[in-house]
Each structure stands twice: as structure tokens, then as C-alpha cells.
Amino acid sequence: MHLTIKLSALKFTLKISLTMQNISKEDYLSVIYKHKDESGEIKPNVIADKLQISSPAVTDMLKKLVKDGYIKYKKYKGIRLTETGEEYARNMVRRHRIWEVFLHQVVGLPWDQVHDEAHNLEHSGSDTLINRLEEMLDFPEFDPHGDPIPSKSGIVPKQKNAVALTLLNKNQKGVVIRVNDFDNDFLKYISKIGIKLNKKIVVKDILEFDRSMILVIEKKEVNVSSTVAANIFVKLAK
Which of 81, 115, 137 is at the close of a domain? Predict the structure, then answer.
């Protein structure tokens, strides 16, 4: 009995250790770039949450990124990318999102599968290959989830008038222009209920006790939690 428990604990520890080893500096820089606030900073606990790792592990990597000149960081304060770090992270995000478009449009993978595959591919191939893919795809500005794709010159397209679905009132209408891609199960769920990019949604009702929403999508009613709605972004429609 005790031996079984010890073996299980050992396997769990090894699993965490391997996961931490697989998280590269590119992963950290991408998270910082994608989740920095309006002032351009991000807190260490946000990085730990997004990468699902411990705070000490984040602190160790932050020290390395400071030493390598990618970030500016002082203990108990926010993290900010340097010019070098910003350029590096933006290029990694660009590579990732171009691969996502390729995998979705050309290979035909659904949007809940492209993230993990693109993550494997973003570290391989030259910038020349990425530029050629971008050209072949007719210079897409947004990935399959509606996130902007930086151009090779560093210009980031802006998605105008995007608001979280939770901000809509009863009887308002919106067209989906972006969804958060943080979780494959979330993407599978919203696909199942008919939510995808450019889909029109009508808010039929909002339940006061938990702020969940009754939506109408192509004449079909669905109930979604406020958590789900907060990760769907729309532009208002008539």
C-alpha cells in the first residue's frame, strides 16, 4: 500500500518536473507579450497561472531573462519586455499564429486542435519559411481564434470595437470576432453549441442570480455561464 502511494507520488513529481523542463524561454516571452496589461507590464503570478507552474519556477526563469536582456524586472514589481524581448516575443507569436492559420485553412484541423500543433511548429523553420507561408495564405491579419498576427515589419492589426459578450444587455446582438484559446475543451464546447468566428448571437435573457446568459444562435437557444461568455468577444450588430 505504502509502496503504491510512494510510486504514485514519484510519478506525479516526475510529471511536473518534465512539464517544467518543456517550458522554454519562448513560452515565457510569448505569455508576457500576449497578457501584458495596458501599461505594458505583467505580474509573475499571471505567468505562473497561464503556464500552470509554480511561482519559484517563474522567478528562476525571470532571473535568466533579465540576464539575457529580454525583460526588466524587480522583485514585487511588474515585468516589462525590453526592446529586444518585445521583438523576439512578437516574432514567436507571429510564427505561432501563422502556423495556426495554415493548419486550420490548409490542413483542415479544427480550431481546438491547432494551438498545440502550432506550438510544436513555431520553434522550427526559418523566418523565410514563415514569410512564404504568410504570402501563400494571402497575408492573414487574424488567426483562427481572432487574435491579431503581427506582420514581418512588426505592425499588429487592431480588432475594432471588440467587447466581451458579458457586456451585452438583454436583446442586444453581436457578431463573434475573437475567442480566447486558453483551453481546448472550451473551444470544443463553444463549437458544439454553434459559436464560431463571424457568427451572429442574440442575447435573449440574462439570469440575475449567476449572470449566465440565454443566447439565440441560428434560431437555437443555449445557456452559457458568465465565465464562458467572458471569453467570447463580439462587435455590436443590428
Answer: 81
From 51, 176, 54, select the one nearest 119 (Cα to Cα): 51
Q: Which of 113, 200, 208, 210 is closest to 165 using CA atoms?
A: 200
CA distances from 224 to 111, 185, 194, 195, 228 (A): 20, 14, 12, 11, 6
What is the CATH number for 169?
2.30.30.90
What SS3 state is found at 52?
coil
pLDDT in tens, 179-226: 998 788 999 999 999 999 999 999 999 998 899 999 999 999 999 999
Count H helices, E strands: the chain? 9, 9
CB burial of residue 13 (10 Å; 0-12, 13-18, 19+): exposed
* Orientation of helix 127-136 relative to helix 83-102, angle to 10°: 50
**Residue percentage of the chain with pLDDT more than 70:** 91
Q: What are the beta bridge partners of residue 236?
A: 174
The C-alpha R_g of the chain, in whole angstroms, comes to: 20
Instruction: Count the domains in the chain.
Output: 3
Of 163, 159, 183, 142, nearest to 233 (Cα)? 163
Quick one: pLDDT band at residue 74, thresholds 50, 70, 90? confident
Q: What is the predicted pLDDT for the residue at 161? A: 83
Which triple of cell numbers denotes residue 109?
A: 484541423
| 81-111 residue pLDDT tens | 999 999 999 999 999 999 999 999 999 999 9
* Domain at 44, CATH number: 1.10.10.10
